[in-house]
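Re: weekly structure request thread

Next one in the queue (526 aa):
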Amino acid sequence: MTLRQAAQGSEVDEKLAALLTNANAVRAIASAVEGTIGPKGLDTLLVDRFGEVVITNDGMTILTKMDVNHPAAKMVINTAKAQEDEVGDGTTTATIMAGSLLSEGVAQAIRGVPVTRLIDGIKAGISRAVQVIEEKAVRIDDVTDPLLRKVALVAGRENQDIADLVVQAAIMVGKEKLLDRRFKLSETIVAKEGAENEVFAGIIVDKKRINEEMPESLSEPRVLVVDDSLEPEQVEEEALATEAGFQRYLDLQEEFKRNLAKIVRMGVGLIVVDGGVSDIAEEILSDAGVMVLARVSSAEIRKVCEHTGARSVKRTGLKKPPEELWKYLGSAQTVYEDPKLENVRILGGRGKPMATILVGATTEEVRGERERICTDAAASVQAAVRGGVVAGGGAIEIALSREVDKMRSSQKGMQAYGLLCVVEALKRPMSQIVLNAGFNPLEKVGDVIARQTETGNDSLAVDCETGEIVDMWEMGVIDPAPVKIHALKAALEIACAILRIDTIIKKKDEGGPADSSREQVEEMDF
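Done, posted below.
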C-alpha cells in the first residue's frame, strides 16, 4: 500500500467514525428487542440496581427500561416512544428495520456511496412502501367484523381472553368513538391483582372514599368535579397576625362552609377532587352522605367528566350561585366502591359512553405484563378500525421489498443503493421471526419471495410451527396497516437522522463557565 492510499484510507475511516459509532449503538438497541418478535419470540428479563425484576415480551417496555447512555441509542428510544404514542404498537418492528437500514447504509457508505444519495434512495423507497400499504389495506367498516378479533389475537400474543375483552370493549364504545383522535381505547384498561376479567359500560377511579362513614354506593347521584383542592382559600401567615387578617380567615372558613351546604342542597352525591380535602369538608360531607374521592389523577378526572357530563371547577367556582353551578354538574346511574379491589366504579353516566377493560392477574409481575399485552391489543384494534389491516407475519414487508426492488432498475446514479438498503431492511422482520422460530432465515425468506413472485399472492409467509409457506389471511395472522406505516416512517426518521451525523463533538457544560484550557472537541465517553 502506498502512502497516498494509506492517507486516503485514514481519511475515509475518520469521516465514517461517527457513522460507525452511531450505527453500532442503534444495532445494539435493535439486538435487545429482536428476540421478542413473532409468535416464538422469547421474553426479556430486566433487573435494576435494587433487584426489582420485569419480565416482558413488549419491545417498548424493554426500550424504555434499558440503561442507555449513547445519544444515538436515545434517539431510537425517543422515536419509538413517538410511535407508541401515535399508534400504540410496532416499536419492535420499527427498531429492527431502523437497525437494518443503518447497517446497510454504513456498508454502502464504506463502499464509497455518498450519504446524501443513500438518504435520497431510502426516502424514495420508504415512500413507495407506504403507498403500497395504503393501496393494499383492507378497510374495517364495522366493529363487529371478525377481522378485529384476529388483530387482537395477534397483538395480544394469542391470549384468547384478552382478545375477547378488547373486541367487546371496541363494540361497546362504537366506531365513531374509535375514530376520534382524542380517544385511546388502550387508556380504558385497568389491570388488578385478584380481579376477574370484565368489560363494563363505565369507568373506574382507582381511589377509595376518603372516609368510611361516607356511603359505599349511590343511586343516580349528581357529580361534581373539583380540579383543585377542596379546602378554604388560604390567608398568608403574616396576615393572620393582624386583626383584619384573622377576620379574613374566619370569613373564608364560613364562606367555604356555606358553599359546601349549597352543594349538598343541590343533591350532589359524588365529589371527585384533584387535590386534598380539608377536615372541615370531610366532616360536613360525611354527615351529609356525600361520597368524596381525593387526589384523583388528571387522566381519571378527564374520564369522569367525559363519562358523567360534568365540567370541572376550581374551588373558587364553588361560590357561583346554584343556577350557574348546575351547568357544571354531571350525573350517573350507579356509583359504588369495590372493597376487594379498593376502587370506585361509575356506571351509566349521562356523558359520552365509556367502556372499561378490567384485566385480572395473580401477581404484580403477571399484572404488569397482562396490562402491556392488553394495551397492545387495544391499540392495534383501534388502529385497524382507523386505517385497515394487512397480512402479518412479515408477509407485507416482503411484498413491499419486491415493489421497492422493482424501482432500482429505473433509478439513475447512486440513489439505487439507498433503495437496496430499504429492500434489505424490509426483509429483516420476517428473517427475525423465522430465526426466533428455529428455522434458517436465509432459506425461508428466499422461499417466500419466490412463492410470492410465482403466485402473485402477497400474503404468503412462514408458518412458525411447521416452517411451511402459508397464506397469512387464512392463518388469521393480520396486522393493522397504520402500525406498519408508522413503523416504516419511524425507521426512516431514525436512519436519516443518524446517517446525517458527520461529526460527534462533546458539548461544554453550559451550567458553568467555559474552560478555555480544554479542547472543546474531545473523545466522547458513552
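Residues 1-12, 514-526 have pLDDT under 50 and may be disordered. Residues 37 and 433 are 6 Å apart (CA to CA).
Next request, please.
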